[in-house]
Amino acid sequence: MFRRGQFDDAFCFFSEMKVKGHPPNRPVYTMMITMCGRGGKHVEAANYLVEMTEIGLVPISRCFDMVTDGLKNCGKHDLAKRIEQLEVSLRGV
């Protein structure tokens, strides 16, 4: 499990990237989503996934799987369904 300081450092670094005009790329978003998912921060992971798509980046399938599974496991079924629909709309599956 991730320690609190590691989350804080990663979130701070991520925010600084955007503030300094360095937009995060797909691997950086993937890392943030993975870290949130493993740390039980499933809603935050979903927010990063949506933000990623809003700037034109397509998440890898594993990110969608991790986020939807995590949301379902913590009882956020409606949000999980919206994330699944987002994946379908992006991939045309």
TrEMBL record:
Short name of one Pfam family: PPR_2
PPR repeat positions: 25-59
Keywords: Repeat
Keyword DNA damage: no
Oxidoreductase as UniProt keyword: no
Similarity comment: family membership: Belongs to the PPR family. P subfamily.
Entry protein name: Pentatricopeptide repeat-containing protein
Organism in which the protein naturally occurs: Salix udensis
